[in-house]
């Protein structure tokens, strides 16, 4: 990365200049250097939070936050990097530190609740969300409220929160998928199918949503493939999902046909489907 070299070169120039300029000019150079360092540090923080290696980001923000204990932005960066590094419980503790600093806000409380949910601390997340005033209305807040309500099987409340969250973003594919999965777990396969299909209109490439759509349809014994964009490999995998659902529901003959189609469709060897088909045929032969 060029940042350290760039700064070192500028620092060297500043040292050389300091011996031949007046005091006020030296002060201007110092101020200029501070500005360059601040800009460089901000850019590096942005890089660490987006494309940097998660563990390296944790190390960077840990060091930077310790060196600058009054910088709330660095403490926030540490919490976010811990989430990226799959350490949500640690992230929640850092968010506690952030919330004790000057400049903390409701967005930080939402971020803490998100980390708590990732750490499976649903009661803690609910308590954190309850500290946020109802006037703070954001997509992230209501998405988490919906998930907490789901965890407590408060379906009516969850539906209300999901609906609000969907209206607060231009990219509702993810929350519509979550809502659909919630409906599916409740036994409302028809409602789930509708939500999964809607989610795919916003993000047609999301395989998880495609798979959920096939599950919702299979739960209604609709085993044919939905009319959606899919690659040959995805089609084979979705046929496999439908096959397992059919077999689970007692539609063994249909399931066997779907497994065979999955094996025939896959552009390469589809090991899981082939093994399932062989096991099914072996059981039939014994039976």
How far apart, in Å, are the first and last alpha carbons? Answer: 66 Å
Number of H/I helices: 15
Unreliably modeled segments: 1-22, 31-40
The whole-number mean of residue pLDDT values reads 87
Radius of gyration: 27 Å
User: How much helicity do the residues have?
Assistant: over 70%
Series of secondary-structure elements, N-terminal to C-terminal: HHHHHHHHHHHHHHH
Largest sheet: none
- The shape is elongated
Assign the structural class, choosing from mainly alpha, mainly beta, alpha/beta, alpha+beta, or little secondary structure: mainly alpha
Task: Give the strand tally.
Answer: 0
Please indicate the percent range of residues in DSSP E strands (runs of 2 or more): under 5%
Characterise the protein shown here.
Helices cover 76% and strands 0% of the residues. It is an all-alpha fold. The chain is elongated, with a radius of gyration of 27 Å. Residues 1-22 and 31-40 have low confidence and may be disordered.
Features:
287 residues; 0% strand; disordered N terminus
